Amino acid sequence: MDSLNDVKKVMQEEIEKGRATPMTFEKMVLDETSYQSIISEEKLKEVLNYLLRLSEYRTGMATVMNNVYLDLRKPISSPQFCRTKSAMDRMLIDMGALKRVKKVAPFYDGDCVIEDAKCYFSVPKDVIEKCKMKYKGEDAYGLILSNKFIMGLHCICEAVRAEYAVDMTITETDSSYMKTMALYNIKEVIFQCLLLDDVKEEDGMIVASLYTIYVLE
Fold first, then answer.
1. Residue 192 near residue 96 (C-beta atoms within 8 A)
2. pTM
């Protein structure tokens, strides 16, 4: 695996070649609002459909290809993260996730949780203004993102999330889910994705969500 410095070097090269919008990771936000319990297998399937843009959540937008997904068709000991080219690719990833769920067999009594880690990226003001556009009447951003740059963004977000777990400090007012994460009471990660097809702007920065579905001990 390349070091983060190597990843950042490749990303900078992509920017210099005009293959990527200059985006710099600034921070990750996790708090008590970042966690929701998944209360049934049916709800889990609905959540996966949303994250994978399947079924009623299909958008037809080409930017879905910018999303990065955990593909559990490979052994869990060597997880693979990938982009997809079609709905069929995402359906196969969905099948892999559901197969993993059946093996882990959550009780859905608070032990299956989805986490939404907000990732903030700074973009030069003049650049972000040029990226603004409308899609079906909604505000959107036309970002230039090469494959190497997208996978680099995910690598950085994943690394920061791992560091966040190590450095996390818990108070009595924190939610039970945050306490559980801090104490490493995680039985299995059954899905993860970085969604770049639905970014927002906040405080002059681009915000994307790194979603992770956990089964807890």
1. no
2. 0.90
